[in-house]
Design a protein that fits this description.
Length: 406
């Protein structure tokens, strides 16, 4: 059935006013495959994922979690890790069929690392070779022809925008791995003390948690420090906790990766902390317009000030102490929340003193209680609605129903 002139014109206008979003989301595509959770995590925290999503005709060569071990053992900065992962993003589309039909048996592909302008000579190119017995090899162009990795399988594909394929191991790129200048040595407690968080800073300075904070700065750290008045009123309850619980509470105020304020506004959902073990000691990041809140089952705290936001370190002031529900009974902090459905797994993240938890499912956030705090509800919260899609759908249906009889 065809729309007549007026209906067609309005229908086209609706599509122009409400343009489509990115054709794909690489991290969402990889969320379906837990064996690549570490690779996927670093696509997010290095901010490489948004750059991939803005491109078309692209191939992401992923490795599984064990394959990432050697890279993480090198303790590269986030900038160094981003360079390495960029070297595994080819600026051309290769699915399994195309890999086995390479003209003349080999092809040279530019990478996103080459596109940064940081690569010298041919160091940003990957050579793909169709080997005997159906195998396909990958190697850096400057690797003397030695095969460094082989094709394992296709993971996801959206022809001909993006192909995600698994290769056997990471490709060596000594130039990409070259250490970037280390971040300036920041005294985080001194910095917090000078910007309205002295009580929290003094408390942190007397705890083993300070070592955990400092040990994560180079690889990425985001701190939420309560203001002085909030921390002062909480100190009596804090002093009732055991030493181990005090450390957990302090470490609960930081995420073991860097996240900017715009990143917090766009990446809502359940998130791990320095204190995270499994599904415990996690909280939810949620935004309301430009406001960002940190939500536990016991407290909803708002970011009210930015102290530092310079990768790999961000420090934000919040208006309340973040209270993990795991300590509610131990320290008499608040009534324990009512049992809910099994907690959702938090975002996978890297902490130098704990293994990262499993990656989450789709981001969900709990609703606030009447006083702004959260209680008696599951951490996974309510489903978020895509506003733009609803408006577009409503307008299209209105146009359709109005002009269909014509």
């Amino acid at each position: 059935m065809q729309l007549r002139g007026g209906a067609a014109a309005i229908f086209l206008a609706v599509l122009i006013v409400f343009p489509t979003t990115d054709a794909f989301n690489v991290t969402s595509m990889l969320d379906k495959h837990s064996e690549f959770s570490t690779f996927n995590h670093y696509l997010s925290v290095t901010q490489l994922a948004p750059e991939i999503n803005r491109r078309r005709t692209i191939t992401v060569c992923v490795v599984d979690n064990p394959g990432m071990t050697d890279l993480l053992a090198k303790h590269l900065t986030l900038g160094g890790i981003k360079n390495v992962l960029s070297f595994h993003v080819l600026l051309d589309y290769f699915d399994a069929k195309k890999l086995h039909q390479i003209t003349d048996g080999s092809a040279l592909a530019a990478t996103m690392y080459q596109a940064t302008g940081s690569a010298t000579g041919s160091s940003g190119f990957v050579n793909i070779t169709d080997l005997s017995r159906g195998k396909v090899g990958f190697s850096p162009e400057d690797n003397g022809g030695n095969i460094s990795a082989t094709f394992v399988k296709s993971v996801e594909a959206q022809p001909y925008d993006i192909s995600i394929i698994q290769i056997s191991n990471l490709l060596p790129s000594y130039e990409a791995e070259a250490p970037a200048p280390a971040p300036s040595q920041v005294n985080i407690t001194k910095l917090m003390s000078a910007h309205g968080c002295k009580v929290f800073a003094d408390t942190l300075a007397g705890s083993p948690a300070e070592t955990t904070f400092e040990g994560n700065i180079d690889s990425g750290l985001t701190i939420f420090c309560p203001g002085d008045e909030a921390m002062k009123s909480f100190l009596p309850k804090y002093n009732n906790l055991t030493a181990a619980d005090q450390q957990s509470l302090l470490e609960y105020h930081a995420m073991p990766f860097y996240e900017s304020l715009p990143g917090l506004r766009s990446n809502n959902g359940l998130t791990s902390t320095l204190a995270t073990v499994g599904n415990k000691f996690v909280f939810t990041v949620q935004n309301d317009g430009t406001d960002v809140t940190i939500i536990t089952k016991l407290v909803t705290a708002k970011i009210i000030n930015t102290l530092v936001d310079n990768q790999p370190l961000a420090i934000f002031q919040v208006n309340k102490v973040l209270v993990p529900p795991e300590l509610s009974k131990l320290g008499g902090l608040a009534p324990a929340p009512a049992p809910g459905p099994a907690a959702e797994s938090p975002k996978s993240s890297k902490s130098k003193h704990k293994s990262p938890p499993a990656p989450p499912g789709p981001s969900e956030s709990p609703a606030d209680g009447p006083d702004g705090d959260v209680a008696d509800q599951d951490s996974s919260g309510a489903e978020m609605v895509q506003i733009g899609g609803g408006i577009l759908g409503a307008l299209i249906l209105t146009v359709w129903s109005t002009f269909l009889p014509l």
